[in-house]
Amino acid sequence: MARIVAALGGNALGNDPDTQQKHVDTAAEMISSLVVRGHEVLVAHGNGPQVGMINLAFEKGYQAGLTPLMPLAECTAMSQGYIGYHLQQKIDESLMEKGSRTPVITMLTQVIVDAEDPAFLNPTKPIGSFYDEDTYLKLSAVSDDVYHKFPEGYRRVVPSPKPVRIYETVTLDVLLKAGQVIIACGGGGIPVVATDHGYKGVSAVIDKDLAAAKLAHLVGADYLFIMTQAPYVALNFGTPEQIDLKRMTVGEAEAYISQKQFPEGSMLPKVEAAIDFVRGNSERQAVICSLTNAIDALDHGIGTVITDDATRTTLR
Asked: Which of 52, 270, 293, 303 is catalytic?
């Protein structure tokens, strides 16, 4: 039996509720198959398209005089709730079809970040829609949000600080030991900073893959599965010289990063998260694969396996 963190990309879940439901079916089948084999499973997920839809709805409501603007931390919490609801229902249904009554729970997850993280001084993560100058001026006048001008118009940008700790780590471990499937760290988690009176949410976005790696660290996972739309990590991606990688050590991965083989904002953070998880621990393994290939990745090595060194490059 192994403890597995499975990270699902927000884009891999689709860009609208109907598509998300269909993709969630695939994710649920994969997760339930791992559970009935006796593995302990935590599910993390992205929320890029989904939190953008929620944020846009409140901005449109504000422009129409119907709703206030909603802080980004609250929008992330909302996306955790509704994506978790879809996942929880489908995983439960898939488990029941396999004869399992394993409980499934969605946990609202706060990820603690450093208030002094340099990312707060340089917001770069774009969220939401593009706006004309009049709308940008109206929105920026009533908030401290930062907007950058792009060729398509003005767009909000937020910091992307590194995850430091997960507030609910002890509870997560207790629930795992009790045999529950847990959906946590949705959208990278709700970013919070420590204050003299507890924790408060901040307007930021934590990278989902880095948060999943932190989650896997803190709960002592054996595997980190990072699900994406591609079956393998590739060199020279999208060119006639593309090479799919089946195995990769930390040293090799870092060499490829220095060669700028992995695009920022897509494959790069996934590889960095895998490195973070396996570095210094030869018993841990990270796997980057497509959502539909997750079981084959465990059984047949379909996908890119990342290890700390070259002594073990096959899954247990």
From this structure: 270
**CA-based angle 184:71:148, to the nearest 5?**
105
Strands 163-166 and 110-113: antiparallel
Question: Is 14 a residue of the active site?
Answer: no
Q: How are strands ordered across the β-sheet holding 190-195?
A: 163-166, 110-113, 190-195, 198-201
55 is catalytic: no
User: 172: number of CA atoms within 13 Å, CB side?
Assistant: 31
Q: Which residues pair with 131 in a beta bridge?
A: 154
Per the annotation, the verdict on 214 as an active-site residue is no
If we measure between CA atoms, which residue out of 156, 161, 91 comes closest to residue 129?
156
In this prediction the pTM is 0.90
255 half-sphere exposure, CB direction, 13 A CA radius = 6
Catalytic residue among 187, 208, 293, 303: 208
270 tagged catalytic:
yes
Which of 14-18, 21-25, 33-37, 208-212 is predicted least confidently?
14-18
What local confidence, expressed as pLDDT, does residue 11 receive?
Answer: 59
